[in-house]
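Researcher: Going back to the complex we discussed earlier. I've cleaned up the inputs and rechecked each line, so this should be the final set. Can you rerun the prediction on the complete assembly and write out the structure?
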Amino acid sequence: MWKQVNEALTEATRRVITGVANILPGMLALVLAVLGSCVVAAILKWLVERSLRGINFDARLEQWGLSALAEWSPAKSPTRLAGRVVAWATILLGLLVGLGALEAGLASQLVMQVFNYLPNAFAALVLLFFGSLVARYLARGVLIGAVNMQMQSARLLSLGVKWLVLVLTAAMALEHLRIGGDIVKLAFSILFGGIVLALALAVGLGSKEMVSRTWEKQSKESSKDAEGSFHHF
Amino acid sequence: MAESGVLAESTQERLAALGAMDLVAGIPSYNNAGTIAHTGDAIRSGLAAHFGSLRCLIVNADGGSADGTPAKLREAVSGDGLLQLPYSVKPADQLSGPHAGVTGKTSALRAILNAANTLGAKACVIFEPDVTSITPDWVPAMARPVLEKQFDFVAPDHVRHKFDGTINKSIVYPLTRALYGKRIRQPIGGDFGFSSKLMAHYLAQDAWSQDMGTFGVEIWLVTQAICGRFRICQARLGPKVRETADAAHDLSGVLVQVLGPLFQAMERDVAFWQRARGSEPVPVFGAAEEVSGEAAAIDVQKMIDSYRLGYQNLLEVWGLVLSPATLLELKRIARADANYFRMPDEVWVRTIYDYALAYRLRVIHREHLLRALTPLYLGWLASFLLEMREADQAEVDRRLERFCLAYESSKPYLISRWRWPENFNP
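Model: Rerun complete. Updated structure for the full complex:
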C-alpha cells in the first residue's frame, strides 16, 4: 500500500512539477513583458511629456477651449494626463502580450477580445475629443452672437448648445463602445425629443405673447435703425 | 483658366487698339444698377470738363452683375470713352449675404490697374459705384495731385459729420497712423488715385492671387504705398453718401471685415512699423467743406447696456486677451453710472493692441475674437458720444488728435508685447 501511496505522491509531484515547468516560461515571459512594458512606458511617458511641454500643450489646450480637461488632470496638467495615459496604455499592452505568452486558452481569448475592442474605444475617444471641441466652438460662437444681439439669456443659450452637442457626442461614443445598447438610443431620443417638444410648447403656448412682443420690438427697432442710420464706418 | 483680374488676350488686343492713355478712371461694379449711371455720368463730366486735352478712358470692371449694371453704365457713358472688363466672382461670394463695398473688389481693382498699366496711363483714379453724392469735381481732386504734383497715392478725405465713421475714428485711422507714421485720415476711404509707378509696383506683388476682401485690398493698397515710401497725399472731397445703408445692422460683421485685414497687415508689415516712430502729416489738397445736416438720433443708453451685457457674459473671452489691469478698468466702467460712463483712452488703446496680438497668436478662433470686440467698441462709442455731445467739429477734432497721440504713446507697449508675447500672461 505504501508503494501505491508513494507512486501516487510521486505522480502528483511529477504532474505539479511538470505543470509548473510548463507554465514557468509563460510566467517568466509575462513578468518580463510587464517589466519591459514598464520600462518602455516610463520612456514613452518622458518623451510625450517633454514633447508636449515643448509645444506648450497646456496653454494651447486652454486656448482651444478645452480648459475643462485640466480640471480632470493630475496636478491640473493635461500634459501629465497624456503622459500617464500613454504609460498605462503601454503597461496594459505589455500585460496583454504577457497573458498571450501564457498560452492559456482563456487568456488568449481575453487578449483577442480586448484587441477587437480597441478600435471601438479609440473611435469613441476621438468622437469625445472632437465633440468637446465642436461643443466649445459652437457655445462660444452662440454666446458672442447672442450678446451682440443683446439677448439677456445669452449664457443660457450658449450652455444649452454646448450640452446638446456634448450629449449627442456622448451618445455616439457609447454606441461605439457598445455600452447600453438600445437603451442609449432610446434615452437620447426621448431626451432630445423632449427638449425640442418643450421648446416648441414654451414658444408656441407659454411664451406666445412674449415672443410676439419681442418680434414686434425687434421689427420696430430695425426699421428705426434703417431710418436714422448711424454710420459706424 | 486665367486668374481673375488678369486681362484676357482679346482684352489686351482691344487695349492695344485703343493706344496710349494719359488718365484712366476706374469703376469696379457688382449689381449697382441703381447708382452706376450717376457715377459714370459724374466721372465722364469730370474728365470732359477738366482733362479735355488729355486722352482719358473710363474702365469698368464688372463681376457679372445680374441687374444690368454694365448696360446702365453704357447708356450713361456713350461713345469710345468706356471700356468694360469682366472679372469673376467666386460662387461662395455670390451666395453669401450683402457685402460692404463691391463683391470681389480685389479682382476688380487688379483688372483696372492691369488695363491702366497696359495703356501706359500716367494716372489712374478709382471711384466706388454706389455713391450717390459723387460730383464731377471729385475727378480732378483725385487726379491732379498725381498728374501735376507728382504724388503717387491719393487718399480721399470726405467731409463727415462729427459722429460719423466711428470705427475709422476709433481704430482704423489712429492705429494706421501710430503704426505706419502717416496721418491719412481715411485710409480705407474706397476711392483712390495712383501714379503709373505705384501701379507697376502693385502689379508686381504676389498678393493678388488671393481674394483680400473689400477692406482687405484697400488696406493693402494704402500700406503698400506707405511701406514702399511712395509720395502720398489726401484730397478733400464732399460728403460720401452711399445708396446702400451702412452695414450697422451687423456691426460685429463690419468689425470682422475691417479689423481682420488690418491685423493681418500688422503681421505682414511688422518690420516696417516696429521701426516707425511718431507720425507725420500728409499733405491735403482742396478746400475744407462745412458739414451740413444733423446727426442721426443716437441711443447711447442702448450702447451702454450692450457693453454691460458683454461684460457680464464675455469675460471668459476677454480674459484670454486683455491684461488684468485692463479687465479691472472694464469692471469699473461697467459699474459706473450712465452719466459718468467714460472709457479712458489708454484702456481702449491697450484693448486694441492686445486684440491685435491675440489675433496674431490665434488665442481663439479669429472671427470669434473680433466679434467679441463689439460690446467693447460700443462702450468706447458711448463714452465718446457722451463726452462730445455738446462739442463742435473743431473740438471733436482736437479730442481725436489727443486720442491718436494716446495710440502713439502706447506703441512701445505693443512692440514689447509683440516681441515677447510669452512674457505676458493675461
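Model: Worth noting: The longest helix of chain A spans residues 2-54.
Researcher: Good, that matches what I expected from the previous run.
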